[in-house]
């Protein structure tokens, strides 16, 4: 029996789940200035269902164009969400078509670097699903290139914008855990069935799933100085919708150790072979996925870091652990592009920082090298920290 999540299951469960609540400051700016950010979406597959609904909840944003090499997908989304967009079947046509301010890259992971570069070259700002490029060097070059073109690029995920991340970051900065020592993060499910790119070279469970924990743990603990990892392929074949059986070429199982400053070590595990009924539709998850330990306290993030429920803080010898931040304050994991459009409109710097995305990209690449060569890999990148 196949327990994997089918594309239609996923879409049914998630397509129209809850419109977003937007930052009141951004909305009040909108009322005063009426600045509207024109958005173009490239890649009209699974995740576009979540993005489009969120974008449509903001009066600061107008989706003006949809692009997909399978043009029927752009047409279907245009109709389903009553967008009234211009539709294109190629990025060149999109960039030469109706004017826009921000491109959202929601295609197969392997295409992100090349598509993002074309958009930057055309003077467009970019919000990219993860990863924003396929290597650290390519990503760094994109960020530098954007500067020369007078535009910006940012990358998913948006985990640092959740109120639970903020609570945990402040608790650490205020010393509530004492001297930090160790942290752990985990995320997995039985793997997407709707597209093969997740299992092709430069796909894999790290850029699709581990990326969330990498962003959370480095966001909380600071940049990693070095990486050691073991990765593997547990299932060498996968059944993909409308495609049949394929060979798995990229890791579907990964354990990553990160060395942070002051002796702090964190560990992440991710994979496409984890039985977890809540792994994709997370709202009923009651277990924790992130743990942080210091010598005066520990914290557990309940739910997944991309869809957190609360934070349990245990820092007393006498009192039971306390549950904090049960309110999501309107946070949704797909809000990154909406936040970035808001930042472009208001010129208020967002919490999501592209140097942080680049650092996570360097970790993924280093983890692959570490596993392949059996070595500890030093990292060169860092980002402004603490983030909150
Ligand atoms: N599906 C999810 O739940 C989810 C959640 C978070 C992030 N993501 C990320 O979003 C991205 C897309 O994932 P997905 O699940 O939506 O995949 P998908 O296969 O459902 O959709 C990708 C779409 O991109 C189109 N495409 C591919 N190359 C293109 C090109 N050169 N030009 C234009 N269109 C092109 C494909 O035709 C397809 O419609 C990935 O980076 C993934 O990691 C997905």
Task: Tell me, rounded to a whole number, the average pLDDT.
Answer: 92
Largest sheet: 9 strands, mixed
Helix share of residues?
Answer: 25-40%
Alpha-beta classification = alpha/beta
Q: Tell me the CATH topology of the largest domain.
A: Dihydrodipicolinate Reductase, domain 2
Query: How many E strands?
Result: 17
Strand content: 15-25%
The side-by-side strand order for the widest beta sheet comes to 16-15-14-13-7-12-11-8-17
- Total DSSP helices: 11
Query: What's the CATH H-level homologous superfamily of the largest domain?
Result: Dihydrodipicolinate Reductase, domain 2
What's the number of domains? 2
**Inertia-based shape:** globular
Listed once per kind, the bound small molecules are: nicotinamide-adenine-dinucleotide
Q: Which segments are poorly predicted (pLDDT under 50) over 5 or more consecutive residues? A: 1-31
Strand/helix succession: HHEHEHEHEHEHEHEHEEEEEEEEEHHE
CATH class of the largest domain: Alpha Beta
Straight-line distance between termini: 45 Å
Can you offer a commentary on this structure?
By secondary structure, the chain is an alpha/beta fold. The chain folds into 2 domains: 7-155, Rossmann fold (3-Layer(aba) Sandwich), CATH 3.40.50; 159-329 and 352-378, Dihydrodipicolinate Reductase, domain 2 (2-Layer Sandwich). It has helices at residues 7-14, 24-33, 48-56, 71-80, 91-96, 112-121, 136-149, 163-173, 205-221, 336-346, 354-373; strands spanning 37-42, 61-67, 86-88, 102-105, 125-128, 153-155, 180-188, 226-232, 237-240, 244-247, 253-259, 265-271, 288-294, 298-304, 307-314, 322-324, 377-378. A 9-stranded mixed sheet has the order 16-15-14-13-7-12-11-8-17. Helix 7 packs antiparallel against helix 11, helix 8 packs across helix 9 and helix 9 crosses helix 11. The longest helix has 20 residues, at 354-373. It is globular. It starts with 6 loop residues before the first helix and ends in a 10-residue tail after the last strand. The model is unreliable at 1-31 (pLDDT under 50). Bound molecules: nicotinamide-adenine-dinucleotide.
